[in-house]
Specification:
Layout lengths: L1 H7 L4 E2 L10 H7 L6 H4 L6 E7 L5 E5 L4 H6 L9 E7 L2 E2 L3 E8 L4 H13 L6 E10 L2 E10 L11 H4 L5 E2 L2 E3 L1 H9 L7 E11 L2 H23 L7 E11 L1 H9 L12 E11 L5 H21 L3 E2 L19 H14 L4 H4 L9
Antiparallel strand pairs: 1-5, 2-3, 2-4, 6-8, 6-9, 6-10, 7-8, 7-12, 11-13, 11-14, 12-13
Helix pairs in contact: 1-7, 5-8, 8-10
Length: 362
């Protein structure tokens, strides 16, 4: 995505795409796509105007709002189950710059940090905003670090961010910059060639109290489990461990619906918080240890959120691990439609059986 953003800077334009510069374009768009502009436009896939697709029989088609409309819908979150997408036509946005960066607080403020995340999620009153709060271990302590984004080239520290920015910072990179510069800054967190795993999950609620309960429960479960992992892997072999959250509320999901909808099956009357467990490590000798730990930890988190009525079966594909179920979380009706589209455009099941990897609808 960094190359896309860099190309658009001289034109004072941007698009809804990856938040980290190194993230690839096709995978993000076919998974749905969480972007900095989500509260204004919905998922990044909702800004796709046309897909050029090579079908299993070699036919090249254009899927859009008037041609191959079922395929157009299915590609918005349906991944690589329908064909090879060779071109995405995206809606652009005027952008003369943005305000954003990371704001980090120390361990003594973690409770207030989690409260700030719940406060924001409960009332996303300014659609020009976007946040990614995370709790990150650092040595024998933790920090709370939030990515803040505001779609303005002139306004800084908007009121909605005050629950975060009123906390004393140990690090602060907030400032005016281009989207390209922000994506490059965020991309510095990516280590090439590292072993890593992301695991997705979701809670669903409608009030501040229930959102905070869910966030706190996930955080407590994750960090209660963490010593089991760190006891088996030397600290020098652990690159990153973090737990982060992504609020999806009415403005985001209403924007998706206004663009014609997508395959993800989320309800604009609910507030969702998608979370990601992230572990990056050095050394293949620890692969099985990490795999076992994230599966066990995810099981415990899901059981805990189910017990208090906050669990949702949606797993955002862009952050999901191979052991997780994706399309069942889109709802029975959505999965059935995806399977119908896949059968119509690929009756021999070429993409289901001959394309390695990825999440399959069958």
């Amino acid at each position: 995505w960094a190359q896309v953003y860099e190309y658009l800077v001289p034109h004072n334009l941007s698009v809804a795409g990856g938040r980290l510069g190194p993230v690839g374009v096709p995978g993000l768009l076919l998974a749905g796509g969480i972007s900095f502009y989500g509260n204004q436009v919905g998922f990044a896939c909702d800004t796709v105007k046309n897909y050029e697709v090579v079908l299993a029989n070699g036919t090249i088609v254009n899927a859009n709002g008037t041609s191959h409309t079922d395929l157009f819908w299915a590609l918005k979150g349906g991944s690589s189950n329908f064909g090879l997408v060779t071109k995405f036509d995206l809606e652009t946005r005027v952008s003369n710059g943005i305000w954003g960066g990371t704001y980090t607080v120390s361990a003594e403020y973690i409770d207030q940090f989690l409260e700030a995340a719940a406060t924001y999620a409960a009332n996303i009153s300014d659609p020009k905003t976007h946040i990614v709060p995370a709790v990150v271990p650092e040595g024998d302590t933790v920090v709370g670090s939030v990515i803040l984004f505001y779609d303005s080239a002139t306004e800084s520290y908007p009121e909605i961010f005050k629950p975060f920015t009123d906390l004393p910072a140990v690090s602060n990179t907030l400032g005016f910059k281009t989207l390209y510069e922000l994506a490059e800054e965020m991309g510095e967190m990516v280590t090439e060639g590292i072993n890593d795993v992301f695991v997705a999950g979701t809670i669903r609620a409608t009030t501040y109290a229930s959102l905070l309960e869910g966030i706190s429960l996930i955080n407590t479960t994750f960090f209660t489990q963490l010593p089991k992992l760190t006891a088996q892997i030397p600290s020098a072999n652990i690159s990153i461990i973090e737990l982060d959250w992504q609020p999806l509320g009415a403005s985001w999901l209403s924007a998706s619906a206004a663009s014609g909808g997508n395959a993800l099956g989320l309800n604009a009357s609910e507030i969702y918080i998608c979370y990601a467990e992230v572990v990056e490590w050095i050394g293949a000798a620890y692969d099985d240890i990490v795999a076992d730990w994230v599966e066990e930890t995810t099981y415990l988190i899901n059981n805990a959120t189910q017990a208090v009525g906050l669990y949702d079966k949606f797993n955002y594909m862009g952050d999901a691990a191979g052991f997780q179920e994706i399309f069942g979380g889109y709802g029975d009706e959505g999965l059935e439609k995806l399977q119908q589209v896949a059968t119509a455009v690929d009756p021999e099941g070429v993409w289901q059986t001959n394309l390695p990897g990825g999440f399959k609808v069958f």
